[in-house]
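Inverse folding, one chain.
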């Protein structure tokens, strides 16, 4: 599948239905700078995955307008066409004041639902004030969505844990709408979910959907059990169906993916070789074995554990000193939350310690960038790296693993992958690690480096073939087929 076939299929199958996508984060952020208005694309899996889909389908994307110049570029209806250099779809922005951002986004979504869904109970903070703001912001989004609906045949596609009560709000106002939701993070077992004081409101809200998709079947099963335990609903575990208050909601596993061709092509572009040589020279890594980590700086990504494993690797296997360099690119995320700023500090401290302990005149073990890097630039690093390490302690899917694979046009790279990411079910040719087992992790880095070239190639070929045929357009196709089933 590619963008063209999806665009055609959508027109054929959903001729008179518009698609309205709803997410918290917007795909393009307009920012005021000294040199005029600049457009940023946020670092994050959701927007990276869905922008190519919306370019193909050309619907309306409704999201929080978070940029300092966002209002300026919108028309009187809060809308702007994007992407800026090749307008294909409408972005409608919802304006939130500081109190709303603090309560809805930094508060309930990211200090209650995010840690809880990642099974980190001790990090979860529940506050009634945050919940109230969260609820109000969901209502504000409902108010912004309703005027965009041409008729009740339109498809509303809600993204993620920021909008658990929105489906019910929309259903109450327009009972025939087709409402589908994609949950980008894990759904925890009931024993963990039940900690949430507002658990029943959340479940009832989500059951306003016709369809809820999770990355993998285990998350579907966890959701089914949660509903079974919490609500007076009829749950069909075999068919993944829930009937509650006379309405049916279906669940499906749909592992998200990436725009494989985009990465593959960016990696093959003209002059890339000279660019790679230039970067290697600048970083003094021409003759090194290079590892890479690329993440939003989040405690779920296991960056601290990764750096610990690298430290142990260099201790245990001194023959790799001056031969192995690790590049960590971590874009700061949610830094207003203390937990995140502390994590950033502790990771940077540990990297400093390692660099001080092991560096020599012509070698630094870890090169660290704390910044947002465009995908076009990221592929240079993916290409340079002989190995990528994805060591999340929990992760719904993890797109970096797939991006690295798509960028390995010479089929030589090695992927070290945590057994706790959704992607592990599909990428079983990676070297699988338990990020909590630092000894094993360090040994696996060695194993990856020393793996015979032919085996590296065999594994990478298999994973590339898989991601190529299970790309973001295949994912949207499966998604649309599931929605179609609900409509017919
Ligand atoms: P994330 O946790 O944000 O999303 P992840 O899957 O790790 O997502 O993807 C991160 C995206 O951000 C990738 O496209 C990557 O290239 C980009 N990125 C990372 N670091 C960057 C940097 N320093 N600069 C620029 N870009 C950077 C959530 C879930 C995931 C799930 C996705 C999609 O937590 O489990 O895979 O949604 O559903």
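Residues assigned per position:
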């Amino acid at each position: 599948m590619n963008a063209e076939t999806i665009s055609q299929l959508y027109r054929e199958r959903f001729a008179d239905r518009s698609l309205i996508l709803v997410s918290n984060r917007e795909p393009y952020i307009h920012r005021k700078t000294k040199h005029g208005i600049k457009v940023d694309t946020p670092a994050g899996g959701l927007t990276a995955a869905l922008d190519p889909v919306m370019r193909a389908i050309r619907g309306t994307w409704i999201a929080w307008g978070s940029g300092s110049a966002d209002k300026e570029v919108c028309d009187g209806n809060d809308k702007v066409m994007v992407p800026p250099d090749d307008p294909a779809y409408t972005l409608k922005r919802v304006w939130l004041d500081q109190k709303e951002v603090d309560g809805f986004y930094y508060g309930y979504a990211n200090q209650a639902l995010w840690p809880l869904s990642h099974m980190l109970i001790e990090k979860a903070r529940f506050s009634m004030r945050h919940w109230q703001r969260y609820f109000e912001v969901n209502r504000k989004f409902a108010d912004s969505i309703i005027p965009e609906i041409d008729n009740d045949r339109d498809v509303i596609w809600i993204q993620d844990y920021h909008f658990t009560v929105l489906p019910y709000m929309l259903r109450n106002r327009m009972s025939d709408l087709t409402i589908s939701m994609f949950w980008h993070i894990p759904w925890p077992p009931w024993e963990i979910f039940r900690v949430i004081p507002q658990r029943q409101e959340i479940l009832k809200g989500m059951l306003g959907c016709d369809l809820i998709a999770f990355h993998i079947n285990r998350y579907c099963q966890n959701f089914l059990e949660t509903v079974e335990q919490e609500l007076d609903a009829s749950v069909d575990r075999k068919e993944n169906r829930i009937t509650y208050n006379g309405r049916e909601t279906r669940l499906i596993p749909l592992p998200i993916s990436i725009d494989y061709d985009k990465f593959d092509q960016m990696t093959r572009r003209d002059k890339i070789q000279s660019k790679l040589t230039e970067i290697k020279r600048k970083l003094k890594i021409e003759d090194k074995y290079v590892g890479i980590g690329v993440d939003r700086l989040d405690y779920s990504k296991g960056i601290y554990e990764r750096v610990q494993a690298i430290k142990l690797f260099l201790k245990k296997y001194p023959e790799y000193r001056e031969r192995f360099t690790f590049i960590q690119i971590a874009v700061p995320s949610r830094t207003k939350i203390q937990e995140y700023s502390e994590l950033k500090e502790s990771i940077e401290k540990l990297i400093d310690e390692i660099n001080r302990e092991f560096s020599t005149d012509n070698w630094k073990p870890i090169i660290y960038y704390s910044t947002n890097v465009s995908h076009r630039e990221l592929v240079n690093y993916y290409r340079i790296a002989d190995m990528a390490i994805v060591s999340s302690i929990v992760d719904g899917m993890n797109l970096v693993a797939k991006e690295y694979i798509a960028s390995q046009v010479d089929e030589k790279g090695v992927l070290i992958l945590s057994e706790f990411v959704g992607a592990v079910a599909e990428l079983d040719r990676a070297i699988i690690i338990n990020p909590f087992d630092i000894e094993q992790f360090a040994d696996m880095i060695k194993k990856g480096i020393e793996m015979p070239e032919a085996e590296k190639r065999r594994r990478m070929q298999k994973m590339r073939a898989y991601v190529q045929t299970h790309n973001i357009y295949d994912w949207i196709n499966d998604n649309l087929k599931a929605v179609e089933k609900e409509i017919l």
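Residues 241 and 250 are 5 Å apart (CA to CA). The chain has a mean pLDDT of 95.
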